[in-house]
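Backbone shape codes:
===
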Amino acid sequence: MKISRLQKKMGDFFLNIDSMKLEPGKVHGLIGSNGCGKTTLSKLIMGILTPDSGEIDYEGLTPRDITMTSQKPYMLHDTVYQNLIYPLTVRGIRPDEKEAEQWLSRCGLLDKKNQYARSLSSGEQQKLSFIRAMIFHPKLIIVDETLSNLDPDSTELFEKLILEQQEQEPVTWIVISHQLVHIRKICDRVNFLEKGRLLAEGTPEEILMHPSHPSVREFLSKTEIFYQNDGDTQ
């Protein structure tokens, strides 16, 4: 995916991405302070928002190939199972009940298959949202803070699911998270936004451990990630 001269003004906020490349089949981390434009950019990619100007070249991807999860996922007024297979239903794909049950089992939700989805805990809803995003084999998955505020076991499960997916059938991921430990662990590339602009991009090692841009260093100084600079830990 190639983004060129993308602009979107929303109130006092102005997103202005001159150029950005998302390599297919890789896990891309999107980091930055609150209000830097991460979610706005993801909504533009999803087509939820329309850019004021610029271009997003999807390189053959269609809306049917793209999905997104969020920290507060929307649950249909239906069972856990019906929520899970919804992406298949709307795409005219016949659900494989055995495969669906395998997904539920991985997340510890099989015994709640017929339970009302909105009665699940917030963590369980996030798990359901995550596997719902993966069940129809999309080509681009945007994860917007889904890894935040989860217990360690759930976070580890999400990481395993992403890494297993990349081993078996690589897809493109955009992972938005303040949990930089997880960004470093699962991402191939990291993009840093500040005040609506893309200021730095590179490998997790380059951005999180040896940042050259002063804004990145300042951002990291307020997080749990430590980096090396001229041989000193800061």
User: Anything to note?
Assistant: The first strand starts at residue 2 and ends at 10. The longest helix spans residues 152-168.
